[in-house]
Amino acid sequence: MNNISRKIILLFSLLFAFSQLKAQQENVPIDHPVYVFIKEMNVKNLTGYIHNDNPGMSREEILKNLNQISENSSQLSGTEKKTLKKYIDEFDDTAADSNNTFQMFGSEAGFSKQGGDFLSDKIKYTYAFKNEDANYYLNILGRVYYGQSFKPRINNAELYDIGFRFRGTLFDKLGYSLTVQKGGVSGSRNFAVTLDPRLSYNFKYVEDYENINNYDFTEGYLRYKMEPVKEMTVSLQMGREKIKFGYGYGSNLVLSGNHPVLDFIKLNFNYGIFDFTSIHASTVGNFNVNRALDYTKFIAINRFKLHFGNSIEFGLGEGVVYSGRGLDLAYLNPFAFYKFEEMSLQDRDNGVLWLDMQTRILPGLELQGTFFLDDDPLGNLQDLSNYINKTGYQLGAFWYSPFSLNDLSFVFEYTRIRPYVYSHVNYMDSYTSWNQVLGHEIGPNSDEILARISYNYSERLRLNFDYQFIRHGDNIYDSQGNLVFNSGGDPFVTHRLDVDPVHILFLDGDRTNTNVITFGLRLEPVRQFVFDFVFKEIMKRSVTHGFSENQSYAYLKLMFEI
Questions:
Q1: pLDDT score, position 379
Q2: Domain check: are 317 and 433 in the same one?
Q3: Would the N or C end of the chain have less CB density within 10 A of its end CB?
Q4: Phi and psi at residue 78, in whole multiples of 5°?
Q5: Is the pTM of this model over 0.85?
């Protein structure tokens, strides 16, 4: 057989293989480290548009980006090439076979069942099934924490949980996922919340009615994706999972992800340079022992964006928080301007608006900024001290491979949030869920400088160093707990008409300066067995009262998915 014949046969084989490809439409959890790799390659200008403001991607989209990076493999460092191969093996389901994938039970998918592969670098499933029209994958999830507090007192806590993730795609269009985890805590209850802040808004843990300190988490959704015409994508998702929204290298001003998981309906539309997202979500207010005081609140968000390749993006977003009634049809409409609708509904709700942009004009350097407006301060922007001027902004830079140092990244970000941002005249409509701000975690009347250095030593080991300097002006209370001075530093405490001053200075109130140093190490010695080691030092100084308080702790966490 001559070379021409071989090439023709190879071409037809490839065309047949691609005709059999089945896209995976379930989402990849936003905490997966593949997002860090894609982000770094995006800043390096080796991928196209990746919607950083709405970071969740399906497995299909992840693989598309990985393949695009692979086309530029000549520009990758040795560590980047190994990391790329690791993730292509994980996300290219069409190439999965007994040579690179292990399943514990069943044989329908044709994967290896050799017991020794359990601790190998093969991809691992508890059970897997796939055919032309459907597939599903089951993984057992486990996590073990051990944490030790050194200051202000020696203390410790252990967390351990077990669960599963069941995911797959039907008919190349419908993705689905269900995740359930159940866990327990031993040692200090309070310190356990420091180790895993999600416990502060977990009902079983907060309720504390049982003999054993326990908690549970669940996520699940359906996601349908279609392409009506070439290069136009539309997806509709319903369910719950951790989401972020808006730019931000640390936390961000819109939806930080460091809050309770939201139940939502989400529409994504992309065609050419135009991108649109609409979210309608529900959550709850603060925990109450008296359940008659519990209530549901809703958050509606629309965002329009123009993106020009991988160079520059401009966005306009709007949102509204409402409660005290069921779903409001006005806010279910994705093609409406919420602020005007909110006014037509008698101005009962909490509206927000933001403008943002991101640019990568220079390869290796990304700049981004967000300007956030809470309620309607447009008529008062000339009076920066007016309490109505509830604004915040964030400016950041991401520099990858600075001075041609491969596998190194540097992040710098400044965030400033004025008093009363995230609060509302009706506390039930504050921009919060449980006891957490939906936006930036430093809260109102605060600012933060964030500097981060990260280094990928290998495809198995990543090092992180963070420094944060946070200033906050808190409300002032007397010894009986009565509010003496409202500085606008608490999102759950609104401005009181005819009581609190009309003009409020930034950082007024009970002033605290905080320095936070965090060192982290992530090691994956064997695929899907990950160790996280974190050491954190928190140094607080009360400028108002002249005293200092330090806290330091460390923890080791093992996560596995088999």
A1: 60
A2: yes
A3: N
A4: -60, -45
A5: yes
Taking the C-alpha atoms of residue 404 and residue 78, their distance in angstroms, rounded to an integer, is 14
409 neighbors 400 (Cβ within 8 angstroms):
yes
Same domain, residue pair 172 and 140? yes
Of 83, 82, 79, 74, which Cα lies nearest the Cα of 38? 83
Domain count, the chain: 2
Strand partners of residue 278 = 267, 302
- CATH label of the domain that carries residue 216: 2.20.200
For tokens 């005709």, name the residue: 19
pLDDT > 70 in the chain, percent: 95
> If DSSP codes are grouped into helix, strand and coil, which group holds residue 139?
strand
Q: Name residue, tokens 């003496």.
A: 484
| Cα dihedral value 77, 360, 447, 147, nearest 10 | -20
pLDDT score of 378: 60
Selection from 286, 335, 333 nearest residue 490 by Cα: 286
Whether 453 and 537 share a structural domain: yes
pLDDT at 384: 76
Q: Using CA atoms, how far apart are residues 494 and 90, in angstroms rounded to an integer? A: 49
Give the residues of the chain that fall short of pLDDT 50.
1, 4-21
Domain that holds residue 155: 136-223
β-strands 296-308, 274-284 pairing: antiparallel
Q: Within a 10 A sphere around the Cβ of 412, how many other Cβ atoms?
A: 14
